[in-house]
């Protein structure tokens, strides 16, 4: 930013901005991210006991990152540290905008600017300094902590609420149509991909979302229609394709999974129009299903509170064919639980103890979305069957996987204990 622009902003936002900027500079942004991580990390762990996901094949070799984040110039991976930094830089305007619009925070305009400056500085410093520990988890954590420290606990809360309500209104129509077409595993998986396009954490999806959000007066029929259009026109390219193996396993009626835990991703169309129909198909087959969601808000990911306060009560009232959701919730065949996570990605060495206990008797784990299913757990190995489903929304990730932007990841492996 030029000095001229900076002083204009200081003038505009007045004393608060000057005060906040002075404090930020006095604290030293470097100190914030060097000293703060450990302290907050400990605080987080103390609040809720964090334990490993019980079905990791070998916790000593598990790495919660799929790609290298600081591979060095000599390394064959074509995406380097500076490219990952650019990914985060490109998403920054949306975060700053949502923070500025957060009506629950006093002086949100000035504070959003402090956030922007702090995060830019963090990215600049990362670019300049060799930081062995740099990876997607650290970068996501620093961004969320910057926001929370300034009081932005859930600055995507409003857009999540709007998207949840719209998607829940469209859900009965979507389920009706899926029942009409007698949707199989392919249609359900593609539905997950279609829903997963809704992601305000990725610059490419932000652009798609703002063009579709501008359509005025969109009713539930339009939303259902555009969901099916997306499913039928934008989910054909599979960059990781274990679909045949998944279909074979799914079609084996003698070994229907007993219980499945699904680590869900985004609010709105993603979880409601994408994941819920897949969960419903499992429930109809007799599988128990538990949705594992963040305890703490991060970007536009659905939280356990939003599932408990809005989604599950709506499903209880909804008259889908045969009342699948109502019966399953009442009989505890279908439930949700907090994963313990406060990030848009997940390190499966650290989930809440209650989530780990709930997952103990699962024989299938499903990891949804870019953060959990692609960037952090695509190569993870499990003792139980696993499915990773997500749409690739960063061109850098697409390049590393060898496909185009908006290609789909459908990974399936059979677990050692379940074959
Ligand atoms: Mg997400």
Describe it.
The structure is a single chain. It is built from 16 helices and nine strands. It has 419 residues and is of the alpha/beta class. The chain has two domains: 3-65 and 80-149, AF1104-like, CATH 1.20.1700.10; 157-413, Rossmann fold (3-Layer(aba) Sandwich). Strands 2-9-8-7-3-4-5 form a seven-stranded mixed beta sheet, with helices on both faces. A two-stranded antiparallel ribbon has the order 1-6. The longest helix has 25 residues, at 3-27. The protein is globular. It starts with a helix and ends in a 6-residue tail after the last strand. Residues 1-18 and 22-36 have low confidence and may be disordered. The chain binds magnesium ion. The site of magnesium ion (MG) has 9 residues, from helix 15.
Mean pLDDT: 87
Whole-Å distance between the termini? 57 Å
Helix proportion of residues, in percent?
40-55%
Largest sheet features = 7 strands, mixed
Number of strands: 9
CATH-defined superfamily of the largest domain: Uncharacterised protein PF01937, DUF89, domain 3
